[in-house]
Write a structure and sequence with these properties.
Blueprint: E1 3-8, E2 13-18, E3 25-32, H1 38-42, E4 50-54, E5 58-59, E6 87-89, E7 92-93, H2 106-113, E8 117-119, H3 123-133, E9 136-142, H4 159-163, E10 169-171, E11 178-183, H5 188-195, E12 200-205, E13 217-220, H6 231-242, E14 249-252, H7 254-263, E15 267-283, E16 289-300, E17 309-311, E18 313-315, E19 324-326, E20 331-334, H8 349-357
Parallel strand pairs: 3-4, 4-6, 5-7, 6-8, 11-12, 11-13, 13-14, 14-20
Antiparallel strand pairs: 1-2, 1-9, 2-8, 3-9, 10-12, 15-16, 15-18, 17-19
Helix pairs in contact: 6-7
Length: 358
């Protein structure tokens, strides 16, 4: 294994060994505290442009499942058709794996997809640095190749445009109620959760003006990066909200932020984001709490919501917004992932609520 160094923007260095594809790379360094789910996380489009640090020390021990596709054209075990994270940083990489569904090890998959991987890093210490300072830009550099160092860019880049579909895609034609899904970087399990509930799904690119189409409800998907770069999406949502014909709308993650922006609220960047399987949220107006899976670096400023909107969920760790709803119309959203794959599924009932409103 070649020696490799992660250099943060403040000059802090972490040394390790390369076990993935061998190329220097740069991006925003973030951490995920989940104990499992690395195939799903790596293929989540919301990680585009990021160097993903896993705090759980042992990674790779259950291998990688096969890339198979279901009847509806959705990957069975992955959240998209490829790895979107720019790199993965782990403490202890297990080359040998044991799992009934595994077909290869993590290193072979990373090499095939041309994604670097670092092991031997003190990921707990790295996480402490990121918690104290906030997420930082970073570069992965090979010690024996000090030249050809990439520049790290993340702020202001429209990653949604990079990961969104390029044309309209239809699922379950003629099946039932028609739902427009605005693809900002949608995860496969969101598609699956909607299709399993018998709707006809029309997936459109992030900047597609869907307002003149025939549909019964609008779904705003998750996605990477800064929601302020999605100006065209917000304008299209504003047209939808001001249409005299009121139709249901649900958003997840980036969808929560875009719906809130269209309503008139503002967004801010969290210090180090929420990326884990165990974020506690409370439904506003009740004592009902849920354990949720999350992956986002930005949040809605609840104090800027217009008077006809209100918070639907709140984060029990830091009090940040975890969803909004309109006081009268059937429009709501969640900052977390109700469909979370690899779990938990405490809040999947939100999909039932949305489909019932159609």
């Amino acid at each position: 294994m070649r020696s490799i160094t992660l250099v943060l923007s403040d000059g802090t260095k972490f040394h390790g060994k390369s076990f993935g594809y061998e190329k220097p790379v740069a991006g925003e360094v973030v951490f995920n505290t989940a104990m499992m789910g690395y195939p799903e996380s790596l293929t989540d489009p919301s990680y585009a442009g990021q160097l993903m640090t896993l705090t759980f020390p042992l990674v790779g021990n259950y291998g990688i499942p096969p890339f198979t596709v279901e009847e509806k054209g959705i990957a069975t075990f992955m959240e998209s058709d490829r790895i979107h994270a720019s790199a993965i940083i782990v403490s202890d990489y297990s080359e040998k794996y044991s799992h009934w569904n595994a077909k290869e090890n993590l290193a072979d998959w990373l090499k095939r997809e041309e994604v670097p991987g670092i092991c031997g890093v003190d990921t707990r210490q790295l996480t402490k640095v990121l918690r104290e300072h906030g997420v930082m830009m970073g570069k992965i550099i090979f010690d024996d190749e000090p030249t050809n160092i990439p520049e790290a860019e993340y702020e202001g880049i429209n990653y949604v445009a990079k990961v969104s579909c390029k044309e309209v895609i239809h699922y379950n034609r003629g099946a039932g109620k028609k739902v427009i899904l605005v693809d900002c970087g949608v995860k496969n399990n969101i598609l699956r959760c909607l299709l399993d509930r018998g709707v006809e799904l029309i997936r459109v690119p992030w900047n597609y003006d869907f307002n003149n189409m025939d549909f019964d409800g609008l779904f705003l998907a998750n996605g990477p990066g800064d929601p302020d770069t999605c100006v065209e999406t917000v304008k299209n949502i504003q047209k939808f909200l001001t249409n005299p014909k009121v139709r249901p709308c649900m958003g997840i993650c980036m969808g929560n932020q875009l719906l809130s922006k269209a309503a008139g609220a503002s967004i801010y960047k969290l210090k180090y984001g929420h990326r884990s399987h165990n974020q506690p949220v409370r439904m506003v107006g009740s004592n009902q709490c849920f354990i949720t899976s999350q992956n986002h670096g930005y949040a809605v400023d609840s104090t800027t919501l217009p008077s006809d909107w209100e918070s639907l969920f709140v984060n029990m760790n830091d009090g940040s917004n975890e969803g909004v709803k309109h006081k009268k119309n059937p429009w709501f959203s969640a900052q977390f992932h109700p469909e979370a794959c690899s779990g938990p599924l405490d809040t999947e009932f939100l999909f039932d609520k949305f489909v019932e409103l159609l």
